[in-house]
Amino acid sequence: MRNQMTCRIALLCAWIVLSSIMAEADHIVQITNEQGRTVYINTGDPTPASPPPAAMSSSPSPKEPDGLAHLLAKTGREFRVDPTLVDAVIKVESGYNPQAVSSKGAMGLMQLMPQTAARFGVENPFNPEQNVTGGVTYLRYLLDLFGGNIPLSLAAYNAGEHSVLRAGRIPAIPETVHYVRKVTSLYHLAREGKSATPAPREAPIVRTIDARGVIRFTNDGGF
Q: Which domains does the chain have, with CATH numbers?
């Protein structure tokens, strides 16, 4: 009798562990990177926002590698996003490491979450061209959503557009505040270095609600 009871308890414990493993597996996505290696990403994190700068296995130079300048210029022209802004985002997000994966599962140069990659048609986030195209498309979407306001768009890139829409400003999230300051600092320094004329000050943002109750952000600046 005692042996039967022990056996039943052991089977019950094994079933609980197996169920837990299967539940976790529902959130695992298998992706093959540029080097042909299989990477498993847990997409169960409910937060849609972009994560903090990637936890990288190596320490690549923050300078733009040869060959990517043309990609940034081409993609920037296509989507009307300043390549200098894209450069600043990549430096802060991944340090120009195309294989970077963050602790939350963001991938590649512009640290796209699996949901964001799928949203903008990126099949291989470790492919630099696909990653940059997806990231710049997302930036263009955010710039349009927030009336060309760069700080708000960057805050949305980091914390998610819904967080910014709810706050009506840059959310009071230390990580997001730091992220916006770092990217805009790199961006303005680069612009000033390329031109003797200081970058114009950004127009103040105006928050309006239309007849349908839709919140809109507009200003006179932007791309």
A: 50-218 (1.10.530.10)
